[in-house]
Specification:
Chain lengths: 477, 516
């Protein structure tokens, strides 16, 4: 019986002009976004590889100079996009993929594409993920809203029920019918995507396939959730018209209003420090020392330097820094670098914590909308989430301190206060290995998303129960 | 007749619970949005003030040291000397750092502020991405081009719930919710036939229905706009009340034209004589297309045709230019290519100074063409967007709203150009004194050049915004059907018997109605 209903539903849909139009537009958009995403990925990837190679070459082949000055010339860390970038660009437009690694300063990842793309980028980027998250639900609503209410309006529901068809059979049949119609578009699309991925992505960890399948799973759950909600509302609403109004209203509410409200509420509850306030904090802590920390880092900068100076004088048995066999200016700079590195890490960690608190607050409100949880999971799996960005930033900062340490140590050992003009060459500069970014493993990516994963399943279960309950209350007149 | 229907419609709307709930939601959205926008502006202003205070305190402490040194010199009757370039304040009796023009120019940085205008809280625009200030020193101007502001990138990508969002995304939904079944609803309820028996032209009927709905929306928009203006503009009227008020008027114009567009679209779709469900389907697809799909497509076309040149490449080219400038320095200058004056032996400080100056100059000259190319590419992209904006009213209005609120990226570009000019002016003040070893005195501290953002004349904004809005208005008028006809002898579609009702009136009357 179910297959008969599914078959009827499927044939009705496919013969309906509505479906053909929607399917054609959807297919076109999906393909366009795929093409655009691939383009974006390719060019970004090419530019990143070329830039990283050039900057590395510039570093090694820079003019012979004082090693600390070389550290001022610095280097750049560029973030490589992962292969699933084409599917979901996540927060990529709003984070920088360039970090300047220079002496004395720990920089943020700057040059966010949104700054260069003007106001238009605020409408969002046409990616496969955007289409699946926003457009497909609306398409399901438009295809399925009249499933029950339409039949009721036209009087055919009474005939159907009089044939002895059970309500649940009807539900599964109709679900299957719409699902098969949908899969006419989505299954080929998934095949194309996986084909593309096998050409584009270098799967070094063997994780790419798992990520792809997980994406299919979560998007599948999301789509079925919307389908069940649509059928459920269609069964209980007074008419096809009110079904449509309720569902479109819910879709707009869940897709556009809730995400923004959630994000603004999280900003109200946990305000983000301004750049000025953050740097004032970095500077003040640098000067005054880290409160509550153990060791020299709790001292003020001057006290710390004094302690190091006295220690050195004692070690070498001399009375003035001028008589030291090592270069005191270099030592003092490196001392400050090391303490600033720890302080910066600590304050960055606090900032990261505040972002995580915001994430939890958003998640709590995200309970009201199935799309929010899915969005987080999708970004994480595509490698375009905050986790990836933070790993990039941390790896660049770790790379920076090693680079600076190498250069300053070279200076410390080769200059003295009496003879400070030391010039190093490319042999010294090539001590610093090229920067390389490793993307998070899948468990790191999904590590903080347990709640979101549960939420996607919960929405699915809720929609299922709702649909079943609606079927029990199905009225034929 | 118009006023009768108008009043009747208003009464009906007032008694419909869903409608009241809808308007309540809209007002609530406006209030929440106004509050959010104001918070964003406040954060912006607070961050700027913090830096202004810090720099003012720094300048004051350098000045205090200088005065102390001047007093000491006067007391001892010895000539003033210039301090070597250094980071740390000199001990009492030694020349204060403030005597050295180069060091002052580099270390006592000036804050070049881009103040928000009276309407900035209406549209957050680029405010959450970019700071409203730059620190100006003696280094190459290319170090000031990035005004990074911290914000959770997930929140940035979601966007702020500001007034622009309510206007662009939500307002159309609310309008469509009240217009999608304007006629189809009457037809389905069977009341359309009744109305047609009255001596009223369909045009008047439609006009009255639309006006009743529009008047409530206009009231809500005016009310919300004024409240948000009063709440938001108080602290930040940096450019005078007249400027802010003019912007508010433009804002009203943009929002009203945009609203009318959606009303016209709703009416037009009702003319298709389809069922309410079909209307709702068409209109929700129209909303999705015009507000989401077309803007993202336009953005896609713009970035594909004129890809914003990669900042990564810009950085790499800058470095190449730096390296080249450095390689061209002569031997003596290269010897002192050290960023720290304290690493240079005292007797060589003069050479170091010249080397520093030469290097900064060389960098500026070398990087200029790289940067120019970058800017040109960006301009081409913006031009393309300007042309393609007419593909969707949402783009037209978004660009207009950001422009009116002074949070558009082009205003940031204009500001940056002014900052660059100021950077050169400031350098012209300090550099000759530095090179000529002119000793700075405390009275010079009050005559440093200062940055003041020069806002364009409001007429230029009006000129820019009016044309796109005018075009939108014209297309609104074109979309609004000239002939409101509900029946054209297509009895097969007329399930609800409107035709039969008319037939019963007699041929003469039916013709009258159709003519009207």
């Amino acid at each position: 019986m179910i297959t008969t209903i599914a078959k009827k539903e499927f044939i009705c849909l496919v013969r309906d002009g509505r479906f053909r139009w929607i399917a054609a537009i959807m297919a076109l958009l999906l393909l366009t976004s795929l093409w655009a995403g691939l383009n974006r990925y390719q060019s970004l990837s090419d530019v990143q590889i070329a830039s990283q190679a050039t900057t590395e070459e510039q570093w090694v082949n820079q003019d012979d100079k004082n090693p600390h000055t070389a550290a001022h010339f610095g280097n750049y860390a560029f973030k490589a996009p992962g292969p699933l970038f084409f599917f979901d660009i996540g927060i990529s437009n709003y984070v920088g993929s360039t970090i300047w690694l220079e002496a004395h300063k720990t920089n943020f990842a700057k040059n966010r594409p949104a700054q260069d793309n003007g106001g238009l980028s605020r409408f969002g980027e046409l990616t496969p993920a955007l289409i699946l998250q926003l457009l497909v639900p609306l398409m399901l609503i438009l295809l399925g809203f009249s499933s029950f209410s339409g039949e009721r309006d036209s009087g055919t529901l009474r005939q159907l029920v009089s044939l002895g068809t059970g309500a649940n059979q009807l539900l599964w049949g109709k679900l299957l019918g719409v699902a098969i119609a949908m899969s006419l578009i989505l299954v080929p699309y998934i095949l194309i995507c996986s084909l593309v991925l096998s050409f584009v992505g270098e799967d070094t960890t063997g994780e790419l396939g798992i990520r792809g399948w997980l994406l299919c799973l979560f998007y599948g759950l999301y789509i079925v959730t919307y389908l069940l909600l649509t059928l459920g509302v269609s069964a209980v609403a007074k008419s096809a018209k009110s079904t449509l109004v309720i569902l479109v209203g819910f879709w707009a509410f869940a897709s556009f209003i809730i995400p923004r409200v959630a994000s603004d509420v999280s900003k109200i509850l946990t305000p983000t420090l301004s750049y000025a306030a953050f740097y004032k904090n970095v500077k003040d802590t640098g000067w005054n020392g880290l409160e509550g920390a153990e060791g020299d880092i709790a001292l003020s900068r001057n006290a710390h330097l004094k302690k190091v100076r006295l220690g050195l004088l004692e070690e070498y048995g001399v009375s003035s820094i001028k008589d030291l066999p090592v270069y005191w200016t270099g030592v003092s700079m490196q001392t400050v670098e090391e303490r600033d590195y720890i302080i910066n890490n600590k304050l960055m960690e606090e900032l990261r914590q505040s972002f995580q608190i915001q994430q939890r607050q958003r998640d709590l409100i995200g309970f009201l909308s199935p799309v929010l949880a899915l969005r987080s999971i999708s970004m994480a799996l595509a490698g375009t989430s905050l986790v990836d960005q933070e790993k990039f930033i941390q790896s660049a900062h770790d790379y920076r301190i090693d680079m600076i340490r190498d250069m300053n140590t070279e200076l410390i050992n080769n200059a003295t206060m009496k003879d400070s003009l030391y010039v190093a060459d490319s042999e010294t500069f090539s001590m610093v290995a090229p920067y390389h970014y490793t993307a998070p493993r899948i468990d790191e990516s999904l590590g903080q998303l347990t709640y979101n994963i549960v939420l996607v399943f919960l929405w699915f279960v809720f929609s299922l129960l709702f649909a079943l309950r609606s079927m029990r209350r199905l009225t034929v007149l | 007749m118009f006023s009768v229907i108008f009043r009747h419609e208003l009464q009906q709307l007032g008694k419909s619970r869903p409608t009241i709930a809808l308007f309540f939601l809209l007002v609530a959205a406006f209030v929440f949005a106004a509050w959010n926008g104001e918070r964003a502006v406040e954060k912006h202003v607070r961050g700027t003030q913090l830096v202004i205070d810090q720099q003012a305190a720094k300048k004051q402490s350098w000045l205090d040291d200088l005065i102390l040194y001047e007093d000491y010199v006067a007391e001892q009757g010895i000539p003033m000397q210039i301090a070597p370039p250094a980071y740390r304040p000199a001990p009492y009796g030694k020349p204060a750092l403030g005597t050295n023009a180069g060091t002052v120019g580099e270390k006592v940085e000036d804050v070049a502020v881009l103040p928000p205008n009276g309407l900035s809280a209406f549209s957050v625009g680029q405010l959450d991405l970019q700071r409203g200030y730059s620190l100006i020193n003696m280094k190459s101007k290319f170090f000031i081009s990035d005004n990074y502001e911290i914000e959770n990138p997930v929140n940035l990508s979601t966007g702020t719930f500001d007034i622009s969002f309510v206007v662009l995304f939500l307002l159309p939904i609310f309008i469509l919710a009240l217009t999608y079944d304007l006629l189809s609803g009457e037809r389905e309820a069977g009341t359309l036939a009744l109305i047609q028996t009255q001596r009223v032209s369909m045009r008047v009927l439609m006009a009255a229905k639309i006006c009743a709905r529009a008047s409530i929306f206009v009231a809500v928009i005016l009310f919300s706009g004024l409240i948000a203006f009063a709440y938001g503009a108080t602290g930040t009227i940096g450019f005078g009340f007249a400027d802010s008020a003019m912007r508010l008027v433009l804002w009203f114009a943009a929002v009203l034209v945009y609203s009318f567009f959606w009303f016209a679209l709703g009416v037009r779709v009702n003319m298709f004589r389809k069922s309410s469900e079909a209307n709702a389907t068409i209109l929700s697809c129209a909303w999705l297309s015009l507000v989401i799909i077309v803007p993202t497509l336009v953005s896609l076309v713009a970035t594909s045709l004129y890809p914003a040149p990669s900042r990564m490449m810009l950085k790499v080219s800058q470095r190449a230019a730096f390296a080249e400038a450095e390689a061209n320095l002569d031997e003596t200058k290269r010897k002192f290519y050290i960023e720290h004056a304290e690493m240079v032996p005292d007797e060589d400080l003069e050479e170091y100074t010249l080397s520093f100056v030469a290097r900064q100059e060389a960098m500026d000259i070398a990087v200029e063409p790289v940067y120019k190319r970058f800017e040109q590419q960006k301009e081409k992209q913006e031009k393309l967007v300007d042309t393609f904006q007419y593909a969707s009213p949402a783009i037209v209005v978004q660009l207009a709203l950001n422009d009116i609120s002074g949070t558009s990226s082009s205003r940031f570009s204009v500001y940056l150009q002014q900052v660059y000019a100021y950077h050169a002016e400031r350098k012209d003040y300090f550099l000759p004194k530095y090179i000529n070893r002119q000793i700075m005195t405390s009275d010079m501290f009050s005559e440093f050049p200062e940055f003041k953002y020069v806002q364009e004349d409001i007429s230029e904004l009006i000129y820019r915004v009016t044309f796109p809005l005018f075009l939108l208005l014209v297309s609104t008028l074109l979309i609004y059907p000239r002939r409101i006809s509900v029946v054209q002898g297509d009895a097969s579609r007329d399930l609800y018997g409107a035709n039969d009702a008319i037939a019963g009136l007699g041929k003469q009357k039916a013709e009258n109605i159709q003519e009207q």
